Amino acid sequence: MESMDFHTAKALLDWQIDLGATEAIGDVPVNRYEVQLAPVKQAAAPAPASAMAAAVDPVAEAEQAARNAGSLEALQAALAAFEHCELKLGARNLVFSDGVPAARVMIIGEAPGRDEDREGRPFVGRAGQLLDRMLAAIAMSRDAARNPVYITNVLPWRPPQNRDPAPDEIAMMRPFLERHVALADPDVLVLMGNISCQAVLGKRGITRLRGQWQSAFGKPVLPMFHPAYLLRNPAAKAQAWADLLALKSKLNDG
Ligand code: URA
């Protein structure tokens, strides 16, 4: 059989389970009359409550891993070692960040797409190219030489078929994001689109939120339209331009 990726295989398996499949069929037929039944074992005494393994809480695990990371390198390593997010299984690369960590502006996007997953860097596809042009319009860039920005995403792994991140995925990545902001310590955060507003501010509604300064993670926060949205809705670029000017003037004031 042709090899398939993790998410496709899992979707196929889930579908078969939905149809009522309860057993995997092997390549070789099994004669059920010849199958030996395992002897019934004496039931073991129940384990004392203290010895029963507590269900893993991925958010608590993420909080601890993030708290223990004392540098951006350690945070990246902690994410790479985090085993509770299924997206990791289908991704080619961990996409951590790009730009200059000491920059005054930190931009938070949603999640890697196909190009970012392939390259291991955020915002390198079409939306990323538009983001670079938007930054250039206010004389900013990812390069150290020219009013640099630092860029990351809510999720470091590409969701299958670029679907929206699930609430539990956002919840388990949030502690890493909060620590990322604390370690980079920018003057200002820019949230690109609804998913990063959801993760950082706990609310959605980018059409209402955009251009309104908020506060989160101890920083001034500016929500903006996501560049992918601007590619689909070029008329909204006028509002994005107003928001870029608001960002510039905040930096000039502070
Ligand atoms: N969209 C995002 O939100 N982030 C990326 O890195 C690429 C596209």
Fold topology:
Blueprint: H1 6-18, H2 58-68, H3 72-80, H4 87-90, E1 98-99, E2 105-109, H5 114-119, H6 126-137, E3 149-153, H7 167-184, E4 188-192, H8 193-201, H9 206-209, E5 214-216, E6 219-224, H10 227-232, H11 237-253
Parallel strand pairs: 2-3, 2-4, 4-6
Antiparallel strand pairs: 1-3, 5-6
Helix pairs in contact: 2-7, 7-8
Bound molecules: uracil (URA).
* Helix content class: 40-55%
User: Quick one: CATH class?
Assistant: Alpha Beta
Q: How much is the average pLDDT? A: 91
- How are strands sequenced across the largest beta sheet? 1-3-2-4-6-5
Number of strands: 6
H/E element order: HHHHEEHHEHEHHEEHH
What's the CATH topology name? Uracil-DNA Glycosylase, subunit E
Low-confidence stretches: none
CATH fourth-tier homologous superfamily: Uracil-DNA glycosylase-like domain
Domain module tally: 1
Q: Which cofactor or ligand species appear?
A: uracil
Strand content: 5-15%
> Distance N terminus to C terminus?
60 Å
How does the overall form come out from the CA principal axes? elongated
| Rg from alpha-carbon coordinates | 23 Å
How many helices? The count is 11
* Structural class by helix and strand composition: alpha/beta
CATH second-level architecture: 3-Layer(aba) Sandwich
Instruction: Describe the sheet with the most strands.
Output: 6 strands, mixed
